Amino acid sequence: MKHFTIRELVHSETARRLGIDNRPPDSAVKALHALVDNVLDPLREAWGGPIWVNSGYRCPELNKIVGGTPYSQHQRGEAADITVGSSACNRRLLALIKRLDLPVDQCIDEKGCRWIHVSHRPGRNRKMYMKF
Prior knowledge:
Structural class: alpha+beta
Strand content: 15-25%
Radius of gyration: 14 Å
Oligomer: single chain
Helix content: 40-55%
Number of domains: 1
Number of strands: 5
Number of helices: 5
Order of helices and strands: HHHEHEHEEE
Largest sheet: 5 strands, mixed
CATH topology: Muramoyl-pentapeptide Carboxypeptidase, domain 2
């Protein structure tokens, strides 16, 4: 983990505000390391500038409150929602993810590229690209 920390991947203003304990179990920490090592750090290196994590790990209670799906990969530490600041720049970041052929399970253009959801599942990545 070169450019990202577990702390930023588990940080949630919503959890802080509502007093929710969003500390991940060891299995989720291991998955977060794999996400960073295989997707986020290589992407950051290629991008050449900051990438911000809007949402990483979410405990089940937090996931429900923010409207996440019941089977969200965020709950297992396999996913992060990222941005580089604007929809236009996020579109370029999405194109870079595709060009680099990173081992993503899902890569989702969320709401006109307001942010990008990326996930990684060690050993079984489907490389699904979607828009929501």
